[in-house]
Structure formats: structure tokens, C-alpha cells
Amino acid sequence: MSYRTHNCTELTKKHVGKEVTLSGWVHKRRDLGGLVFVDLRDRYGMTQVVFNPDMVKDFKIAEKLKYEFVIKVVGKVEARQKENINKDLATGEIELMASEIEVLSEAKAMPFEIFETNKGDEDEDLRLKYRYLELRREKLKNNILFRARVEKYIREYMDSRDYVHIATPILTVSSPEGARDFLVPSRVHPGKFYALPQAPQQYKQLLMVAGFDKYYQIAACMRDEDARADRSPGEFYQLDVETSFKTPEEFFQEMEPLFIELTEKVAGKKVMSKPFPRIPFKSAMEEYGSDRPDLRYDLKMIDVSEWASGTEFNVFKEAEHVRVLVVPNGDKFTRKEIDNEFTDKAKRAGAKGLAWMKHTEGKFEGGVSKFFDAGKLEALTKLVDVKENAILFFSADKWEGSCKALGPVRELAAEKLELIDENLIAWAWVVDFPMYEWDEEREKVDFGHNPFSMPQGGMDDLLNKDPLDILAHQYDIIANGLELSSGAVRNKDPKIMYKAFEIAGYTKEQVDEEFGHMIDAFEYGAPPHCGFAPGIERLVMLLLGEPNIRRVVPFPKNQKAEEPMMGSPAEASDDQLKELSLKIVQDKK
């Protein structure tokens, strides 16, 4: 006989009278007046099983059942009495009257409760060590199943639009792509190393040169980065996409329906705007203080630099840029909240402090209001359309600092005033990123984003514009304060590539050494191409509303990039090191 004829959520009143076989885990066991009741669980759901000593063989087995034992049960389906129906259970109208029972696997005492608490507040390393047990918890299990549905939907969407799934190498060559590589020593070539791919960036561009005009894969990417709430240390997955002969706008229009359908059909949430807004990078920074703004609430910063320069308040008068964030109903914020929480947010973003004042009962009060006369305050009221009971937060700094300081202040204000609709996803494209940025530490111009992006003005802009004014054909897709992906129109012209790298301080010889294979390929006829690579984990986080990436990864690493369950990373044996021509040198410090 098979282990099961049905799963633990299939049985309904239409099965009454039928003999069935179920297998699963003992979720709960209750002994009531000689009858033993067991809630039997598998990944699909639960069914109540009743063990009657007059009906079941080996009733003693039922009496000895314990939490999380794996059992097989044979019996007949019976309808529950009306007063015993459990409306919270999919199988709540029936129960299984057991005739046979077999213990398939016993379970020792759990290191933590699986379902009774379901809070996940135990020590994280303990939960990660026994991750296979934590994955039995309903919420975490459902997160992983949801991720599988998302990936299935993505594959079907891409296949239906004639994108070709192509796997690219896992063992490749080290490449300066913005993060540290994981290196793999070669046994066959002592002293040489493979690198695990940070992304299939170069391979997918070479596939375009090869003529595969529509490529995708859900690719594993490995980067030696530190952990954070929205980044998994070591490895992550992304929907890697590249296409030829499309403009960015054509590409946006082809990809937007995927995110709309994932939001509405898979996650059951609402999309804020269709089509997605296209927001220039400069506008995003100046209005929202972030290049990945949360657009679910309408709080925008306003440039008041001209007004500020005419005041006698030196902090404003001497600053290159002054911006204000007007928050309606901000009079609710206490002095303690402003001085501690809001100011702390601004300081963490690089500000020296946070200037503010309130507008109540037709006048300004508190904070820096005392530094301005009535005329200047009246002018400010008209300039930024101040409403009653508002609070005004100010930033004063150079361009970047004045933008970034108020970004997290904006987010905190929205959170405290409960302006965020958790059932809404505000998708947008951020476009027109700067090609270059000024590196303060090294005092030089460097790439602001992907060095393989095409400058918008081509060679003409590279030759004639200030590098810091050059825009790239670079774009991000964002939602609810998360960056899901960067993308770009790729630079396929060797002459433009050499010049772009020259501006960032690279010689032709250095470019040839690092990317000679790409230059060579582009000289054999390269089509115009573009693409992007949304992170799968971040996408699932967004759709589920999960704040931590480890809640959507089956077997994540901890904050130290360790996996307690398998014990990685682990030391290699002397024989393994010898075979690889390696020797561990202890740091004397």
C-alpha cells in the first residue's frame, strides 16, 4: 500500500465513507476519554485523525505518539457533528477514523517549539542551526512556497515572450564589478584561481554578440559582501535579462507587465501607477532624498536655497543648498522624538544636525523659528504652501548632503503618521543616472554606476562635457523604498569604452588586461543591447512585505556569513591544501 492516497488538506465531505491513507507529522495530540485525537500535518495543511481503541489495530502505538513523529494512517473519512465543525480548517468538516497506524520516524525533543509559539524570537543561530525545523513553521514555509510560485511565474512570462533560458558558467575569472570576488583555487593550474560570478554581466553581453537576442536565467550571484536586512551575505539570485535591438522605453514596456502581474495575480496587492513613473535621478534625490524613494506617500522636499540665502541665519545663509520637508500633522511629534529619533536619522545620513520648526495656530514656533523675522516667515509660508499643524524639517549642505539628510526623515515621518499602505506597491523607473562621480577619498573622477553603461551623448559628450555632467543610459527599477535592479544600455563601441575608462583614470593597457575579451568581441559586430537583473530575494521580500531577507531564503547565512547548520565556512584538510598547492599563513596579529 502507498504512503498516502491524499494530502492533509484534500479531504472534504465528498470523501465521507471512503478509505484513505495519509502520512505526515503529529502536529498535536490529545487524549480525551480513551480516544486519541491527532492533528496530522503535511506541507498542504492538516486533518484531524481519531484513534478509537475499538477500531484501530495496535492502539498502544497511538497512545505513545509524540510531537513531530512522522506517521502513516489508514482509515475511513467521517463527517463531523455540526457542533464540532472547525471553520478555521480546510478539512474542518470531516475527520479520519483510523483503522491502522504505522510510525515512520520518531522525533526527539525539539530544540525550540515549532508551532506553539511561532514567534521566531529564539536565538537566530539556534534557529539557523536547525533551519530544517524552523522551515516547518507555517509563515516561513509559506514564504518559501510563495518564492517558488514567483519564480515559476517569471519563467512562464519570459518563455512566453520568446526569451531563451541559457545557463552561464559558475567558475569564471575575477572581474572588478564593485564587490570582492570569491576565489576558487585551481588544482590543474597551481597558483591560478577561478572566481565565482558576481553576476553573469559579461556572459550575457557576449550572448548578444553571438546573436541570442533575448536571454534570461534566474542566476546565482556570489559577492563577498557584508550582511544587511535586504542583502544576503555571500550569495543571492537574480532574474538576469538581456535583449538586443530595443530602446530602453521598449524594454520598460515589455518588462512592466511582469511586475504588475506578480503584484496583482501572485501577491494579491495593488499597483499604485500604470505605467510606472520615469523619475530622473536628480529629481528623485532633490524631491525624496533617495534614488530609491518610497512613492506610496506624497511627501516631497522643496528647494528653498534662494529664500535661505537672504536670511540672517548663518547655517542657512552660508550653505550651498537648503531644502525643506513640510510634514502635515507634524505637530504631533514631541520634542523628544525630534531631538532623538528624527535628528538621529538625519545624522546617520551625514547631516551635522536637523533644523526644524512647527506651524500651529497660524504662526511658526519652536526649533529655529526664532532666527527669522515675520517677513521671512511669511515669505516661506507662501513659497512652500505651509498648512496648519505642520512641521518643517530643513537640511543645509552641498547638493548631495542636502538631499540625503532628509530622505530618512521623510521615511520616519510617514511611518509615524501611518501614511504607508502595506497593500500597495509603488513601482517606478529611476533614469538618467550620472555616468561619473567625484571620489572624495581618492580625489578623482570615478564611475558612478556600471562602467559598461553607454554615455547618453556618446563620444561627443565624453570629449566635450564636464565628466560630472555626463548622464548614462542607466536605470533602476524600484518599489516601496527598495532598489530591485540596476540596468543599462550597454556600451558596445570599443572607442567609446576606452575613452569612458580613460576619464575614470584607466589606461588602454589596463582596459585590455581586464576586459580585452569584451573589446575583442565587440569588434566582430555587436548589436545595440540593454537589460537588467532584479534580485529574486528582494522581489519576494517586497511582494510579501517581509523586512528581512533571511525570511525568504531557505538556508540563509547569519550576519557573520556563516551557516551554522552545515558549518560553513570550514577549514580545509592538509591534504586538500597540498593538492591545491596552497598554504595557510597565520596572521601574527
Describe this structure in words.
The chain has 589 residues and is of the alpha+beta class. The protein has 18 helices and 24 strands. An eight-stranded mixed β-sheet has the order 6-9-10-24-23-22-19-12, with helices on both faces. The chain has a five-stranded mixed β-barrel with strand order 1-2-3-5-4. Strands 13-14-17-15-16 form a five-stranded antiparallel β-sheet. A hairpin with a 2-residue loop joins strand 2 and strand 3 (45-51). The model has no long low-confidence stretch (mean pLDDT 94).
Overall number of strands: 24
Question: How are the strands of the largest sheet arranged?
Answer: 6-9-10-24-23-22-19-12
* End-to-end CA span: 65 Å
Number of helices: 18
Helix percentage range: 25-40%
Radius of gyration: 30 Å
CATH-level-2 architecture of the domain at 297-420: 2-Layer Sandwich
Per DSSP, what share of the residues sits in E-state strands of 2 or more residues? 15-25%
Broad shape = globular
Secondary-structure-based class equals alpha+beta
Level-1 CATH class name of the domain at 297-420: Alpha Beta
Largest sheet: 8 strands, mixed
Q: What is the CATH superfamily classification of the domain at 297-420?
A: GAD-like domain
CATH topology name of the domain at 297-420, in short, is Gyrase A, domain 2
- Uncertain regions: pLDDT < 50 for 5+ in a row? none
Average residue pLDDT: 94
